[in-house]
């Protein structure tokens, strides 16, 4: 993207010595035709003036004055919806800590908490503050919530010390934002389909067989795809999860319904099959089975949705990603699924561990790639963060 014409940027300046560099970032964004609104935190005003920011940004500058009149005028929800992207530069240790706790005691933190947009943080602080365990812990949480970091870099600091904690250069911050927005624009034309959750297979009108899948990983992948601009459809089996993003959500119950919904939503460019589809269906009785000493139920094989899509040449998405939920022989089973199911990637996870996989918020995934026979381990972390890492790889593969 040559410029940022018609792109709306909400720029948040916190109180740190590198706030002077924010003026340069704003100048560069403006040179690229971005539309900018700025929020100055209370302490930011000690370093830069609202007047200089307003002159450079040619946009509205919001100050941190909470009052009934101001709330009516500023409307933090509208402000967060207005933006295509939010940049916090410099992001101080204090702001990082507040955001990690989900505090909303000023305009900047309230807008961020209410936002459904990508948030970029450009941290700037003294090396000891940067290396402090609490800062590391806060950043770990923020990454798991989907925040992205730009920098910091290593260099001479205003306090006279040298090390990591210096805010990234304005041009690097600009380029990160430009790459993100141009990819997002490109991804709008790309259709992504995700299956998630378990399926219910009915024995009779009131009983069914299901499995322990919560759908969390698939929902997080759909959310990450949507955030990166993809035209996303999520076909979900029964879960307790909600989705607030503008994602095309199709709720189904049985494997057959999931299969039909998948067919109806082809062609797609990318398909991620994270659903734990029941391998069997039951020859269902039309009436409730009455109590009896012994009962046998007959099972028959369900259609393999992934297999169907990946071998349906005319409709095959450019990138087909399957999951392998395994309790043993992860490597061997994942490699077999990669070729048996004609996938481009298999994301394998061990579902025998209590603290990861099925029903947990955490997971550990190994990606097996068809084209270069390589594997890549994504270490144990929140499913939301893993989804970001998976979608990073999808973006670089597809663009
Ligand atoms: N899958 C599917 N339709 C099915 C069964 C599985 O689309 N009827 C997909 C899953 O969504 C997943 C992949 O196939 O992406 C592998 O699922 P998994 O349950 O790990 O393997 P199965 O093929 O069911 O084989 P097994 O149970 O023997 O391990």
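^ Assign residues to that structure.
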């Amino acid at each position: 993207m040559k410029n940022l014409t018609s792109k709306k940027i909400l720029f948040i300046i916190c109180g740190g010595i590198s706030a002077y560099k924010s003026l340069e970032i704003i100048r560069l964004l403006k040179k690229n035709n971005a539309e900018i609104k700025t929020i100055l935190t209370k302490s930011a005003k000690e370093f830069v003036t609202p007047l200089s920011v307003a002159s450079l940004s040619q946009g509205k500058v919001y100050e941190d004055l909470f009052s009934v009149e101001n709330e009516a005028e500023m409307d933090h929800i509208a402000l967060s919806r207005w933006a295509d992207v939010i940049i916090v530069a410099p992001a101080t240790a204090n702001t990082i800590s507040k955001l990690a706790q989900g505090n909303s005691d000023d305009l900047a933190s309230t807008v961020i908490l209410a936002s459904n947009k990508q948030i970029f943080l450009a941290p700037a602080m003294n090396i000891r503050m940067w290396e402090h365990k609490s800062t590391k812990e806060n950043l770990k949480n923020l990454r798991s919530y989907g925040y992205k970091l730009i920098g910091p870099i290593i260099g001479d600091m205003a306090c006279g010390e040298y090390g990591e904690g210096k805010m990234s250069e304005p041009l690097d911050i600009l380029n990160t934002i430009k790459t993100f927005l141009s990819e997002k624009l490109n991804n709008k034309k790309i259709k992504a389909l995700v299956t998630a959750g378990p399926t219910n297979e009915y024995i009779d009108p009131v009983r069914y067989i299901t499995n322990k899948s919560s759908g969390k990983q698939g929902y997080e992948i759909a959310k990450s795809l949507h955030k990166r601009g993809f035209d996303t459809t999520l076909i979900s089996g029964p879960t307790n999860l909600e989705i607030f993003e503008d994602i095309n959500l199709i709720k189904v119950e049985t494997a057959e319904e999931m299969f039909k919904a998948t067919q109806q939503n082809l062609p797609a460019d990318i398909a991620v099959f994270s659903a734990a589809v029941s391998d069997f269906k039951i020859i269902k009785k039309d009436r409730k089975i009455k109590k009896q000493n012994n009962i046998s139920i007959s099972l028959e094989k369900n259609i393999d949705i992934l297999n169907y899509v990946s071998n349906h040449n005319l409709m095959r998405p450019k990138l087909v990603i399957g999951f392998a939920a395994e309790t043993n022989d992860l490597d061997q089973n994942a490699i077999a699924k990669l070729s048996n199911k004609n996938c481009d990637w298999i994301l394998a996870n061990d579902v025998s561990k209590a603290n990861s996989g099925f029903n947990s918020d955490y997971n550990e995934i190994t990606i097996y790639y068809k084209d270069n026979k390589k594997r890549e381990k994504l270490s144990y972390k929140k499913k939301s963060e893993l989804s970001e890492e998976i979608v990073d790889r999808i973006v670089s593969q597809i663009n």
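The pocket of cytidine-5'-triphosphate is lined by residues 195, 255, 273, 275-277, 279, 302, 304-306, 322-325, 337 (CB under 6 Å).
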